[in-house]
Design brief:
Helix content: 40-55%
Number of strands: 31
GO molecular function, one term: cholesterol binding
Oligomer: single chain
Protein name: Niemann-Pick disease, type C1
Keywords: Cholesterol metabolism, Disulfide bond, Glycoprotein, Lipid metabolism, Lipid transport, Membrane, Signal, Steroid metabolism, Sterol metabolism, Transmembrane, Transmembrane helix, Transport
Family: Belongs to the patched family.
Membrane topology: Multi-pass membrane protein
Largest sheet: 5 strands, mixed
Radius of gyration: 44 Å
Length: 1327
């Protein structure tokens, strides 16, 4: 019984074995074997021979090839369903996928599984079914023309998932965009495999119909081989794919930090709330103090003109008695004042005594200094104007230009059409309808191509030569390919009308035309072959890809077919160190501009710009505004010439006018400017347009103010008995020159210290302005004084102005007060300083200050490039269209400087983005940044030369080959049996390092892309890798990507800031142990926008330094009256802060131009303030109010007529300028400077002095000059010297011990003291 059971068991086992063997034999059934017959669909390809027998052993010489391609079948006797020829065909067909997908081993492993099972699997018959055959009578063979390939859906999805993120570094796109026949975002597992097996892709010789199923169907078992995820390692030791090529490896994507919330309090702007509260608190305290003081004074029955704090025993305005100690500062200040007054008095007298000598010497000096203008150089290079030679961006630009060549010049066109030619394209092979924008109509494209061709053929004349585009254009593959780089959608059609008209179809249907080719090329711009029926290349004629985001505009998302604009760019070589070639490029650009301006086509709207356009338009703008500037200055000159005269009677009109003196004064002002320009031209300092446009305005303001002060002081003065003219003018100069010296020296020192700025425009302006102001002062106290004395002598002899040879009949000249002076003394000054007006003035000005502080941080930083253009400039239209249509910003290069070691695995891993590379490598960080483009402003993954080099050098690829005999490079397109792979399969498992890395790198950089090897690095990387030491080491390199679209200054500034942050982070991660690697970001606009990163601190520094200089100089020249200097600086600070308020209200941004104006406004503000404060300081009127009133009456009128009225008329003319930059940064800012300076100097400052001015030395005395009922500040210094305790201390006496002293001892008039007894000394009389 047991034997029977054992026998049954044996029979069962035998039957099972027989069945298994039978199934195994069936599984080994082939569908084809070998190749026979040429494909009728794809020329050059062959069909496979029909074969239904078992798999056959592969010849021994094919083992290595089988092991390379399909190692899973390399076992036993290598029985497979393919021969060596089929393996070679498979290898050739997989070259393109190999070059782009092998950077992710798991992805390429799964793809190879798909094709190996199809081509050579011993069990083909399980999942492959031949459905169509053809018989060849000549060879007596049957070819397979169509098959069905049953593929597991799970396998297909897993293969796609492993490959979906793989990048194509040289193209800045995903690899599937090049291999799927459509954009990667539209690709999926099904349509990718369908596309690869489609006979219309130009690679598949016969129809392969994939059928996706995970369960057996139609007696077929789907191919469901095991797959590898992109985050898994392979059995051969290959690691997981990199983060860049596999999101599963990356982990969670970094979340950009949230945008900082605006600073608010109770939902309102915090600064506004704070300033409102501060202002209200100030008003309560101030008004409370005023009311308390008023009530107290009412009780004390005090005059309303008594000082508010006079009754306070702690007041600065207290009485000084003989017993008070005089400080060292007071003693030193008094001595300095006396010295200045005496010096200027003697000097003024000398100038009047010897006018011809002084004038002649002045002319000689002016001529000598101005002769330096022959060496004058005007800088128009924007880099030199706006970027400091010591700045980071400047150093980085110089490094980039030195190692990789200067950034090319750009000529760009943005073209739209007036035609309503939008259309719908219906693909023949299925799929949804595709809308095409109007500019993509074929008729429009033909017209644009004609226009583009005309530009290519433009000829410009330079000397005796003819310059064409091909002579200056960027040709990256020269000398192998001399075609110019033209970034145009028409390069998808090889810039050819014939290719544009190319189509495939029959009498009923169009299978493919320019529509289908366009759709393919925008998804695979680096493709060498449209895999549709047309088989036209997408690569441009210059040998590089044409990315759709660079040549199309006005589309949504990545729907390039919806484009509403075409963008054509002609990159032209830049020649910074070759003037001859640069001039040729400039000549061609000028012809380009002329041609496009005159080109007419009713169907096309063209906006354009050339590299030289902005500079040309700025120069044209400057020339067109010359008439406006001349008119502005002419009005100021006419006013000065007429206003200086003091005309009492019409009969003496031509005698009392001072036209010739006014013209002489203007000549002196302009001479100071030319002297400054000449001296610095001798020194080799170049001029800028800002210097030429701004400094005359500044010096005219300072100089004219001084002229009016001198002339009007003389006009108000009366010559004393037995006083000669030279004594009178000497006395007058001694009175007013210290004030002029105070303002001029303050401005000079402030400007010279402003030259410490890092901004070239500000530094140059400060140097020229400081010297011009000081020279102007020297000429005014010398040459102008001499000319004034000559004019006075002419007037006293009744000779006509200008026609000085004509003499009128003698008549008695009577002196009267001018209307403006009378108005200030009798009406304006008393009104402003009324008890009830002063608090209102303080409240108003403090309120304006509070508002300005609240909005200062809201002033926009930057300079809108549109503002630099004239209103009628063609470039304005280009800027508008650029913001409207363009989708991509400027290219940005992440440069790795010399010192990084690329020959070690560690050095490679810190940079590359492929398998085995660090997750925080340079390429990976840039890729991650591109995924957060709204935050980082990095728009695309970078192109990576090192990753493409690793793909190029792989032994599985046909790219890297050398001649066996010589070792020289053998291009993939060369058919020569002596060409062998650079590296063996065993070497290919590891990257090249050391000497091997450098051995093949020069070959890679010289290899031109071709259909057999699309990874050649010549076009993409030859300029991006700097080989050193005779090609034995790598120096500087760059990795290029693009910024997102940047539309305004804020965008540009943020893009640069984020790129630098990213570069610094990369540098840190590449140097964990302090290596020498350093990375910086570079884009062509950084050198211009870097200033805005520090513009706020630069502004604070420059204005702070200027104010400090004003404070120090004012303190010294006011006799060390620190409090007066503080009040001057406080008022100037208020003017500057209010300037920011005006800038915010009037839409004026903060940039180098406005900073120059702010520095200038600091200087002009000194003119508005210093004269008033000095007049107040030397006044000996009884109270602060009276001293402020006296100072305002005597100096206010001169300041008002000298600066305010002079500038106001000239500034209004600037509003007529066509230049936006003139209208905004000159008209608006100049007007604000003058109005704010005048209101603060003539309204607020006197009121401030009446409240908080420096205390006087003695109480009000009852004295007057003989014959003068209105003593003014001209005599105050003499009074101050006589009456102050300092004077007594300086004379070695104190109190009643001092002997009697007369003011005549100082060379002044005789003073009478009605209250003094005969023989009493001065102190007794005054007390």
């Amino acid at each position: 019984m047991r034997r029977i059971k054992n026998t049954d068991a044996l029979i069962c086992i035998f039957v099972f074995v027989i069945s298994a063997v039978s199934y195994w034999v069936e599984a080994q059934h082939c569908v084809w074997y070998g190749e026979c017959g040429n494909s009728t669909s794809v020329p050059g390809k062959k069909y496979n021979c029909n074969y239904t027998g078992p798999p056959l052993p592969l010849p021994e010489d094919g083992h290595d090839l089988l092991l390379e391609l399909c190692p899973g079948f390399a076992y036993g006797n290598d029985s497979v369903c393919c021969d060596i020829q089929q393996l070679q065909t498979l290898k050739g067909n997989l070259q393109l996928p190999l070059q782009f997908l092998s950077r992710c081993p798991a992805c390429f492993h799964n793809l190879m599984n798909l094709f190996c099972e199809l081509t050579c699997s011993p069990r083909q018959s399980q999942f492959l079914s031949a459905t169509s055959f053809s018989y060849n009578n000549v060879t007596n063979t049957t070819s397979v023309e169509a098959v069905q390939y049953y593929i597991g859906q799970t396998f297909a999805n897993a293969m796609y998932n492993a490959c979906m993120d793989v990048q194509a570094p040289s193209s800045n796109v995903k690899a599937l965009s090049l291999l799927c026949g459509k954009d990667a975002k539209d690709c999926n597992a099904t349509n990718w495999i369908q596309y690869m097996f489609n006979i219309n892709n130009g690679q598949t010789p016969f129809s392969i119909t994939p059928i996706f199923t995970d369960v057996p169907m139609a007696n077929m078992t789907p191919m469901t081989n095991a797959t590898r995820g992109c985050n898994e390692s392979l059995a051969d030791g290959s690691g997981p794919c990199s983060c860049q090529d596999c999101k599963l490896v990356c982990g969670p994507m970094p979340v950009p930090p949230p945008l900082p919330l605006p600073w608010t309090i109770l939902g309102m702007d915090a600064m506004a709330v704070i300033m409102w509260i501060s202002y209200v608190v100030f008003l309560l305290i101030f008004i409370g103090g005023v009311l308390v003081t008023w009530c107290y004074r009412k009780r004390a029955i005090m005059s309303e003109y008594g000082p508010i704090l006079d009754s306070n025993t702690h007041s600065l305005n207290r009485h000084i008695t003989d017993q008070d100690e005089v400080t060292c500062c007071e003693t030193l200040g008094q001595a300095f004042e006396v010295c200045l007054r005496n010096y200027f008095s003697v000097w003024g007298s000398f100038c009047v005594h010897h006018p011809l000598v002084i004038v002649l010497c002045s002319l000689v000096l002016v001529t000598a200094c101005s002769s330096g203008l022959v060496y004058m150089r005007v800088t128009t290079d924007p880099v030199e104007l706006w970027s400091s030679p010591r700045s980071q961006a400047r150093h980085e630009k110089e490094y980039f230009d030195m190692h990789f060549g200067p950034f090319f010049r750009t000529e760009q066109l943005i073209i739209t059409t007036t035609l309503d030619s939008a259309s719908i394209y219906s693909p023949y092979f299925g799929g949804p309808d595709v809308p095409f924008g109007a500019p993509l109509d074929k008729g429009v494209l033909h017209q644009v191509l004609d226009f583009q061709t005309d530009i290519e053929n433009l000829e410009a004349s330079y000397g005796n030569e003819t310059v064409k585009l091909k002579d200056i254009c960027l040709a990256p593959l020269a000398p192998y390919n001399n075609n110019c780089t033209i970034l145009s959608v028409l390069n998808y059609y090889q810039n050819s009308h014939e290719v544009l008209d190319h189509w495939k179809g029959d009498d009923f249907f169009t299978y493919a035309d320019y529509h289908s080719h366009f759709l393919y090329c925008v998804s695979a711009p680096a493709s060498l072959n449209d895999t549709g029926p047309l088989h036209d290349p997408c690569l441009g004629t210059f040998g590089g890809p044409v990315f759709p985001w660079l040549v199309l505009g006005g589309y949504d998302a990545t729907n390039y077919n919806n484009a509403t604009a075409l963008v054509i760019t002609f990159p032209v070589n830049n020649y910074h160190n070759d003037t001859e070639k640069l001039n040729k490029a400039l000549a061609w650009e000028a012809e380009f501009i002329r041609f496009v301006k005159n080109y007419t086509n009713p169907n096309l709207t063209i906006s354009f710009s050339a590299e030289r356009s902005i500079e040309d338009e700025i120069n044209r703008e400057s020339n067109s505004d010359v008439s406006t500037i001349i008119l502005s200055y002419a009005i100021m000159f006419i006013y000065i010439s007429l206003a200086l005269g003091h005309i009492n009677r019409c009969r003496r009109l031509l005698v009392d006018s001072k036209i010739s003196l006014g013209v002489a004064g203007i000549f002196i002002v302009l001479s100071s400017v030319t002297c400054s320009l000449g001296i610095f031209s001798y020194a080799g300092v170049p001029l800028t347009l800002i210097v030429i446009e701004v400094i005359p305005f500044l010096v005219l303001a300072v100089g004219v103010d001084n002229i009016f002060i001198i002339v009007q002081t003389y006009q108000r003065d009366e010559r004393m008995l037995q006083e000669e003219l030279h004594q009178q003018i000497g006395r007058i100069l001694g009175d007013v020159a210290p004030s002029m010296f105070l303002s001029s020296l303050s401005e000079t020192v402030a400007f010279f210290l402003g030259a410490l700025s890092n901004m070239p425009a500000v530094r140059t302006f400060s140097l020229f302005a400081g010297l011009a102001v000081f020279i102007d002062f020297l000429l005014q106290i010398s040459c102008f004084i001499s000319l004034l004395s000559l004019d006075i002598k002419r007037q006293e002899s009744n000779r006509l102005d200008i026609l000085c040879c004509v003499k009128l009949q003698e008549s008695q000249e009577s002196r009267t007060e001018g209307f403006l002076f009378r108005f200030f003394r009798q009406t304006y000054a008393p009104f402003i300083l009324k008890e009830w007006v002063r608090p209102l003035v303080v409240a108003l000005f403090v309120g304006i200050l509070s508002f300005s502080i609240a909005v200062t941080n809201k002033v926009e930083i930057g300079l809108d490039q549109k503002l630099s253009m004239p209103d009628d400039s063609y470039v304005l239209d280009y800027f508008t269209k650029m913001s409207q249509y363009l989708h991509t910003g400027p290219p940005v290069y992440f440069v790795v400087k010399d010192g990084h070691n690329y020959q070690t695995v560690e050095g490679q891993n810190s940079v590359c983005g492929g398998v085995g590379c660090n997750n925080n490598s340079l390429v990976q960080q840039l890729y991650t940044a591109s995924q957060m483009s709204n935050y980082t402003r990095i728009g695309f993954p970078p192109s990576s030369w090192i990753d493409d080099y690793f793909d190029w050098v792989k032994p599985e690829s046909t790219c890297c080959r050398v001649y066996n005999s010589s070792g020289a490079f053998c291009n993939a397109s060369v058919v020569d049996k002596s060409c062998i792979h650079c590296r063996t399969l065993e070497q290919g498992k590891a990257r090249p390092t050391g000497a091997e890395f450098m051995k093949f790198l020069p070959m890679f950089l010289s290899d031109n892309p071709n259909p057999k090897c699309g990874k050649g690095g010549h076009a993409a990387y030859s300029s991006g890798v700097d080989l050193t030491q005779n090609n034995t080491d790598v120096g500087g390199t760059y990795f290029m990507t693009y910024h997102t679209i940047l539309k305004n200054s804020t965008d540009f500034i943020e893009a640069m800031k984020m790129a630098r942050i990213l570069a610094d982070n990369i540098t840190q991660t590449m140097n964990p142990e302090g290596n020498a690697s350093h990375v910086f970001a570079y884009s062509v606009f950084y050198v211009f926008y870097e200033q805005y990163l520090t513009i706020a601190t630069d502004t604070a520094f420059n204005l702070g330094v200027s104010l400090s200089a004003v404070f120090v100089v004012t303190t010294v020249l006011l006799g060390f009256e620190i409090w007066s200097a503080i009040l001057v600086c406080l008022t100037i600070t208020m003017i500057l802060v209010n300037m920011f308020g005006v800038m915010w209200l009037w839409g004026i941004s903060l940039n180098a131009v406005s900073l120059v104006n702010l520095v200038m406004s600091c200087g002009i503000s000194v003119e508005f303030c210093s004269h008033i404060v000095r007049a107040f300081s030397v006044s000996t009127a009884g109270s602060r109010v009276q001293r402020a009133q006296e100072a305002l009456a005597y100096m206010g009128s001169s300041v008002f007529s000298g600066i305010t009225l002079t500038k106001f008329g000239g500034i209004l003319i600037l509003a007529l300028s066509k230049s936006q930059i003139f209208q905004i940064f000159y008209f608006r800012m100049y007007l604000a400077i003058v109005l704010l300076g005048a209101t603060h100097g003539l309204i607020f400052l006197p009121v401030l002095l009446s409240y908080a001015g420096q205390s006087k030395y003695l109480d009000q005395g009852n004295y007057s000059r003989s014959g003068d009922s209105n003593p003014g500040p001209l005599d105050s210094i003499a009074r101050r010297q006589l009456l102050s305790p300092r004077s007594r201390r300086n004379r070695g006496c104190c109190g009643s011990n001092c002997p009697a002293l007369q003011l005549s001892d100082f060379g002044g008039p005789t003073w009478q003291f009605p209250n003094a007894k005969a023989g009493a000394n001065v102190s007794t009389a005054l007390l």
